[in-house]
Amino acid sequence: MNRFWSEPLDPLHRRLIFIAALVLIPVMLYPALPVWKMTMHAPQYPEGLNLVIYPNTIRGDIDKVNTLNHYVGMHKIEAADFKEFTYLPFSLTLFGIMALMAALANRRDVALIGWLAFTLFAAIMFKDFADWLYHYGHDLDPRAAIKLPAFTPPLIGFRRMANFKVWSLPGAGSILLGVAWLLGPAIALLDFRARRAARRRTAAREAA
C-alpha cells in the first residue's frame, strides 16, 4: 500500500489533475461566476425576477423578492445571514491549491485527499442550500397579509409556487466545479486501468 502512494503518477494523469486546478481558478475569482441561479416568472413580472448566488454573496432582484416575501411572511433575504459566504471562497481556493500541488509535486495522496475533501464539502454545501430553501418556505410569519401553505422552493429544476413559475439551476461556477470533481473518478479509472495493464505485461514477461 505504501508503495502505491509513493509511485509517481502517469504524466497524463498529472496533466488532468493540473487541468482540475485550472478549472477551479475561475471559480476562485468569486465575483465573476455565479454558482446558482433562481428565476421566478409571474403575470405581474413577465420579465422575471432573478436571484443569483455567488460564492461570497447574493445578487439580482433582491429588493423586489424581499417585498414579495414580506407579504407572504417569508424571511428577508440578506447575504449577511449566510455564514457560508465567509468561508466558501477560501475553501474553493484551498481545493485548487491542493490540486495544483498534487500535479506539480506528483503526489498521489494529495490528489486523493483533496478530491475526497472536495466531495465532502460539496455534499455539505448542497445540504445547506436545501436547508435554506426549506427554512424560507416553512418558517412563515402567521401574521402575513397573504397566507400560503408551507412549501419548499426547488433545489434544482422547476416548481410552480402560487402564481409563480420557479426555475432553480446551477450557474457557470457550479458547472466548472462539477467538471473539476468528475476529473477525480476519471483519473482514478485511468490510473486503475494503467496499473492493471502494467501488471499483465509484467506477468506475461515473467511467464515467457
What does this protein look like?
By secondary structure, the chain is an alpha+beta fold. The protein has helices spanning 2-6, 11-28, 62-72, 84-105, 108-138, 172-207, and strands at 36-42, 45-53, 58-60, 157-161, 164-170. A 5-stranded antiparallel beta sheet has the order 3-2-1-5-4. A hairpin with a 2-residue loop joins strand 4 (157-161) and strand 5. Helix 2 (11-28) runs antiparallel to helix 4. The radius of gyration is 23 Å and the shape is elongated.
What about the largest sheet? 5 strands, antiparallel
Topology as a string of helices (H) and strands (E): HHEEEHHHEEH
Number of strands: 5
What's the helical proportion of residues?
Answer: 55-70%
Work out the strand percent: 5-15%
Radius of gyration: 23 Å
**Spatial strand order of the main sheet:** 3-2-1-5-4
Q: Given the structure, what is the number of helices?
A: 6
Provide the low-confidence segments as ranges.
Answer: none
Q: What number is the mean pLDDT?
A: 85
Q: Quickly give the structural class.
A: alpha+beta
How widely separated are the two ends?
28 Å
Per the principal axes of the C-alpha atoms, what is the gross shape?
elongated
